[in-house]
Amino acid sequence: MTQDQTTDPGTTPEHPAPWRPSRTVAVVLAGGTGTRLGLGIPKQLLKIAGKPIIEHTLAVFEGAPEIDEIIVLMATGHLNEAQQIVSKAGFRKVTKVIEGGDTRNATTRVALDAVGDEDCNILFHDAVRPLLSGRIVRECVNALWTYSAVDVAIASADTIIQVDENECITDIPVRATLRRGQTPQAFRSGTIREAYRRAEGDPNFAATDDCGVVLRYLPGTPIKVIDGSDENIKVTHPVDVHLADKLFQLAAAQVPRLTDHRAYSEEVTGRTIVVFGGSYGIGHDLTELARRYGAQVFPFSRSSTGTHVERPEDVEAALKTAFDATGRIDHVVVTAGILEKGALTEMDQETIDRVLQVNFVGPVTVARQALPYLQHTKGQLLLYTSSSYTRGRADYALYSATKAALVNLTQALSDEWAELGVRVNIINPERTATPMRTKAFGAEPEHTLLAAETVAQASLDVLISDLTGQVIDVRRPPGETPAATVPTQTERSASTTTTTVG
């Protein structure tokens, strides 16, 4: 169990009680039925960003070094679905998946029985808050060295009003002292057990959360408040589903980077990579980079090999060429694309068909043809979008639309192919210096564009990672060499490209 025993000296009680917990248990409360979402399944089983909400939530605790054990309290009648999710994802910290109670308080009592009588830390967290950060988990656990009850909350950006039964204002509390509660709520086990023991003797007992039980029945117990985050939303209403999905796309997470040339060579040597669109730009730079590290790379394009990604026979022949030469295909990359500017109503049908075929039908065709090869190696399909996928751009509406479609395709395929062990991700670079961009927009100041080789490096990092279903934003790091200048090998190894996952 990893715990940092440092606390803020300004908030430490004068005589903190010694505390030696045996372990730290995360209790994931998944008893909701999704009635407010109008669903036929519990909302925690709804998929966002390619995975069930509860899987995202469990992954946070699985990856938190402060957490030793996870117990899931699932809605009645849905234990099998939860158990399948745990098994499929390989969550090793989950020790129990059991049914919750009829109410939140009853569920807490079930959880306390499941935890047992040993002194331990317990974190109660809503399963439908999938965007919980590791920072919040860490601060909650750390605070339990000093406090026996911990809540998570954020400041209210809105004025809070109090009303009567006629919906008329009766009071407007001072906003500076108000907070909006979130989860997890963390406790020393003895504290929360004692609070519920006392509550059992109250015929009017009712509470909406566990800190409320401590506040009411152990009034002398300080409850420390940890700063939550705006992203730690609870998926309750239909709009929350869309917000959570978008937040996953935008959430920042570092893509793993290796330390030196030797580390990359050890990872990449012997792998076979097929690049569609490999004659110039990002595809060309990725081809050259991967070859330097020892990969066997097969680039295909319209200009160099006469390969059209929208033609199944061309894609099949390209994949067969790579497989016949090496006996395997580990990664398939699709950088091929075209950008035609102009108002949609002014485009001729031939241009419209070409944009749709190359930018969307092409990746779909490659995905279908590549799956048997990638399934054999447990490999990865890597696609590319652009910042225009988040909002359609005037004068290149079709390009924007196809790039948005590829994001959805990535997330859907990552889900479909998860059981096959095949990963699917998509790179979202900012404005990049490529021949395609120059053709569409003309000459632009070098310092405003991302170097294609920077995107290639980020692409290689994603290919050798365990990520799947992710949109990887690639941005220019501070002080990056101008796009038109190719860095030396030494400079390349020392690069600190910022890549974020959403």
TrEMBL record:
Enzyme class, first EC level, given as a word: transferase
Reactions that this protein is recorded to catalyse: 2-C-methyl-D-erythritol 4-phosphate + CTP + H(+) = 4-CDP-2-C-methyl-D-erythritol + diphosphate
Sites annotated Transition state stabilizer: R36, K43
Composition-biased stretches (Polar residues): 486-495
EC number of this enzyme: 2.7.7.60
Pathway: Isoprenoid biosynthesis; isopentenyl diphosphate biosynthesis via DXP pathway; isopentenyl diphosphate from 1-deoxy-D-xylulose 5-phosphate: step 2/6
One function term, GO molecular function aspect: 2-C-methyl-D-erythritol 4-phosphate cytidylyltransferase activity
GO-annotated biological processes: isopentenyl diphosphate biosynthetic process, methylerythritol 4-phosphate pathway
Annotated positions for site Positions MEP for the nucleophilic attack: R175, K234
Pfam families named among the record's database cross-references: adh_short, IspD
Keywords: Isoprene biosynthesis, Nucleotidyltransferase, Transferase
Residue ranges, annotated region (Disordered): 1-21, 475-502
UniProt entry tagged with the keyword Phosphoprotein: no
Sequence ranges of Low complexity compositional bias: 1-13
InterPro entries: CDP-ribitol_syn, IspD, IspD/TarI, IspD/TarI_cytidylyltransf_bact, NAD(P)-bd_dom_sf, Nucleotide-diphossugar_trans, Sc_DH/Rdtase_CS, SDR_fam
Family statement drawn from the similarity comment of this UniProt entry: Belongs to the IspD/TarI cytidylyltransferase family. IspD subfamily. Belongs to the short-chain dehydrogenases/reductases (SDR) family.
Primary role: Catalyzes the formation of 4-diphosphocytidyl-2-C-methyl-D-erythritol from CTP and 2-C-methyl-D-erythritol 4-phosphate (MEP).
Protein name: 2-C-methyl-D-erythritol 4-phosphate cytidylyltransferase
Gene from which this protein is expressed: ispD
